[in-house]
């Protein structure tokens, strides 16, 4: 599916564990719920999903609608939203006035898009939806035990890494024993992504 970008707090000196929770919801269409039977629906933005052969998601459609408003009000497309194949010739917002305009559009529709009839008419709620939530935990990285191990049992890759980040002056291991824990931690990070849970709910 098309994705909506979200920022993750990943930084040097820490190991970040990203736990994903996947939920799939199956609902009966209107009048039993507020979702739309997509087999009987069409709109300009829904057409983008069909032409790209992508799974429809209301959340992504909202972002496309904001892109459409950016194009209408700023005459350029924002890099923060998915591009629209119907407006592929529109230039990306690059000039200061364009970026200011796109920021104003973002602020204008940041919380209201999902409740505006104009937006909902083009981006209905799907009856089968997949959502991902995540939790983030962090721990110190590397551990002091790993720090000692890397200094005493270093590999060619580790020496090359320390050379590239400026902790060693050449490709040899000379001086590796002088590297402090703080220096090593500031040049390293780790990220682990795992599926925490998955559930399917029907209404």
Description:
- The structure is a single chain.
- The chain is α+β, with helices and mostly antiparallel strands and 203 residues long.
- The protein is built from 7 helices and 3 strands, in the order βααααβαααβ.
- It has a 3-stranded mixed sheet with strand order 2-1-3, with no helix packed on it.
Annotation keywords:
single chain, 3-stranded mixed β-sheet, 203 residues, alpha+beta, 7 helices
In short:
With 203 residues, the protein is an alpha+beta fold.
Overall mean pLDDT stands at: 85
Structural class, please?
alpha+beta
State the share of residues found in helices, binned by percent. 25-40%
Biggest pleated-sheet summary: 3 strands, mixed
Radius of gyration: 24 Å
Overall geometry comes to elongated
Q: Can you count the helices? A: 7
Q: Separation of termini?
A: 23 Å
Work out the strand percent. Answer: 15-25%
Strand order of the largest sheet: 2-1-3
Q: Total number of β-strand segments?
A: 3
SSE ordering: EHHHHEHHHE
């Amino acid at each position: 599916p098309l994705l909506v970008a979200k920022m993750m707090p990943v930084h040097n000196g820490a190991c970040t564990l990203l736990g994903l929770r996947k939920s799939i919801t199956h609902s009966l269409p209107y009048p039993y719920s507020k979702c739309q039977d997509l087999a009987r629906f069409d709109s300009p933005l829904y057409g983008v999903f069909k032409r790209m052969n992508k799974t429809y998601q209301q959340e992504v459609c909202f972002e496309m609608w904001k892109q459409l408003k950016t194009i209408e009000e700023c005459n350029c497309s924002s890099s923060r939203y998915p591009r629209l194949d119907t407006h592929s010739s529109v230039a990306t917002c690059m000039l200061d006035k364009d970026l200011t305009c796109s920021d104003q559009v973002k602020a204008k529709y940041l919380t209201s898009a999902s409740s505006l009839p104009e937006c909902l008419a083009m981006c209905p709620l799907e009856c089968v939806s997949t959502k991902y939530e995540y939790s983030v935990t962090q721990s110190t990285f590397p551990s002091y035990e790993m720090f000692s191990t890397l200094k005493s049992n270093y590999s060619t890759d580790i020496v090359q890494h320390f050379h590239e980040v400026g902790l060693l002056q050449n490709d040899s291991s000379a001086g590796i024993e002088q590297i402090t824990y703080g220096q090593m931690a500031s040049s390293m990070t780790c990220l682990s992504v795992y599926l925490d849970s998955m559930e399917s709910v029907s209404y």
